[in-house]
Amino acid sequence: MSRIRLGRWLIAVPMALLALATIYPLLFTANVAMKTRRDYILDRFSLTDTLRWENISTAWNSVGMGRYFVNSLFVVTASVFLLLLFGSMAGFALSQLRFRGSSALFLGCLAGLFIPFQVIMVPLARIMADTALIDTYPGLILVYVAQFLPFTVFLMTSYYKGIPPEIVDAARIDGSTVYGVYRRIMLPLGTPALLSVGILNALFCWNDVLMALVMMPSADHRTLMIGVTSLRGQYSDNIPTFASGVLIAAIPVLLVYLFLQRQIADGVAAGSTKG
């Protein structure tokens, strides 16, 4: 029993420290957001004695955070829809349909996971500018789809490989077309994976700064994360207002993690447990 207790403590203590290290930045940001600028300068680590909600109001109204919030919501929704549509189709084809070159095509999708955006940033911006897609919502949506589609295809292919091929064969014998099998069988069976992958992609797109900064130079088309960065500039150091903007941008992500943590964990594990 003593060995079991010791083993549990050896696991619980590092996990508690990890949880504390994860929660502390959020608590520190929320505490700073409730301070005045003077209180922050005097002692940035002390606990605030009053809740100053006007900092959040200032952050929301000073740079048009409401407009940026709507921009991010539209771009993320459209990007996730296209990612799930194309990713589920490709996953179904690569896992259940037998055609020449499917393995090479799947490896090509996997190769896309190892290409960081910084490598293709300059030529991609040139292409988008030449095609008049720079500083447009369709341009940013296409960039998100291209960047995160390999990840989506990989997870959906891994998940669909766990579905017995006899189900697809039986449907084809009954006269169902390939599209019919995809729509009536694979989509319903793949709902757990689609939900998990959709949540992960939504978080990726929502938290992105670099791609949105490159593709959306105009102030009117900025996303929420770019709007947060504009709260602090060369001649502006109102840290409580900046912390309030960070808190506004983090609230949707926190809500997603709070209510959909099981789906997120399933999505992360899908690639290693299926197939």
From TrEMBL:
Q: Does the keyword Transmembrane apply?
A: yes
- Alphabetical list of InterPro entries matching this protein: MetI-like, MetI-like_sf
Q: Offer one Pfam family short name for this entry.
A: BPD_transp_1
Give the CDD domains listed for this entry.
Answer: TM_PBP2
Alphabetized Gene3D superfamilies for the sequence: MetI-like (1.10.3720.10)
Q: Where are the transmembrane segments?
A: 9-28, 68-92, 104-125, 137-156, 193-219, 239-260
* Localization in the cell: Cell membrane
The Gene Ontology biological process terms listed for this entry are: transmembrane transport
Keywords, ordered alphabetically: Cell membrane, Membrane, Transmembrane, Transmembrane helix, Transport
Q: What is the membrane topology here?
A: Multi-pass membrane protein
Q: Where is the ABC transmembrane type-1 domain?
A: 69-260
Q: Which GO terms describe its cellular component?
A: plasma membrane
The answer to whether keyword Glycoprotein applies is: no
Highest taxon of the source? Bacteria
**SUPFAM superfamilies linked to this entry:** MetI-like
Family in the record: Belongs to the binding-protein-dependent transport system permease family.
User: Any idea what this protein is called?
Assistant: Carbohydrate ABC transporter permease
